[in-house]
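Notebook, student rotation project (T.W.).
Task set for the rotation: take a protein with a known small-molecule partner, predict the structure of the complex, and write up what can be learned from the model alone. Partner molecule chosen: zinc ion. Sequence and SMILES entered below by T.W., checked by me.
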Amino acid sequence: MRALTLVADRKLELVETPGPAAPADGEVQIRVHAVGLNHLDVWGFRGMAFAKRKLPLVVGAEAAGEIAALGAGVTQFKPGQKVVMYGAMTCGHCAACTQGRDNLCENVGGIMGFHLDGFARDLVNMPARLVVPVPDGVSLRDAACAPIAFGTVEHMLFDNAKLKSGETILVHAGGSGIGTAAIKMAKAIGCTVITTVGDDAKAEKAKALGADHVINYKTDRFEGVTRKLTAKKGVDVVFEHVGGEGFNGSLLCLKRGGRLVTCGSTAGPTVTINLMQLFQQQYKIFGSFGCSMRNIRDSLFKMATGITPVIDTEVALADFERGLARLESRQVFGKVVVNF
Ligand SMILES: [Zn+2]
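Predicted structure of the complex:
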C-alpha cells in the first residue's frame, strides 16, 4: 500500500509499504479516502523540538474512509461502511475516557500523524471504539473535516463557551477552516456573528456564509469596530485561535462576564494580560484542544442537515505538501482536503 511519510523535518516521501496485518480483536481495518489538513500538520511538517516522536512517521491527523475488514468481536460496523477516525490514540478506560471526555484522556498515546503514524496511507487498523459512522448523504470529503476541524469547533462553542441562540459572537479569522465552521454553526442556532478577515475578497465570502458583520483587520481595528457594532456593550463570546497581539483586543471585545474560548496561537503563544481587567470584568477564558467522540458524531449529524464544511482546495496524496502550502497561504478560505 501507499503511505506518505515524513522522513525528516520538511521532507515527505510517498512510499510503498506492506499493508497492516488483519485487524485484531476489537479493531477495524479502514481504507482511507480523504485526509483533512490542519495547522497541526504544518507544525508536524516543520518539526517541533519538544514533540516526542520518531521518524519516519506517516502523516495525516484527520481522515475518513470505509471499513475494509472487521476484527473479532466487532459487530457495530459492516464492510464498505463510511467512517471517520478519532485523531488521538486514547486509552478507552481512564476516568476521562469512560466519562466521554476523550480529549482529557489520562494515558493518551499521542496524536495520529503527529506523534504516531497517521492516516495518509491506503489502509489503517484502528480500535473500533475510536471509529464513528458517517451518516447517509455526507461525502467522505466533507466527513474528513469532522474529527478535528468541526469537532474542535463543536467542543469550543457548545461544551466550553456554551454559546446560546440569540447571543453575539466574534469569530476570529473567519476564512480559516475552523473559522468558516464556527460562522456556520453559530448562524445555524440564531446567533449574531461578527468575524474578522484579512482582505476584501474574503469579506464577501464570509458574508455569503451568513456572517452579519465582517471586519477587515488589516484596515480597521477589530476591537473598535466590535464595540461600535455592539453599542459599546461587547460580545457574549469570542472565538479565538490567533493569539499574539490581538488577544488583548479580543478581551476588550467581551461584555462583562463574557466568554473567550481559544484553541490556537498562530500569531504567537505568549501574551500579557491585565488581571484587574480579568477579574473586574469577570471574563471566562477557556482553553480548548481537540474534542470528544460525541462532538464528532454531532458534527457529522450537522453535516447531514446541511451545515457542511467550506472546502477551499482538494489535492491528491502526492500533493500533500502543496496542500500544506495552500493552508499557510493568505488566500485560503476554508479547508484543504487530500483525496486518494
Ligand atoms: Zn483514557
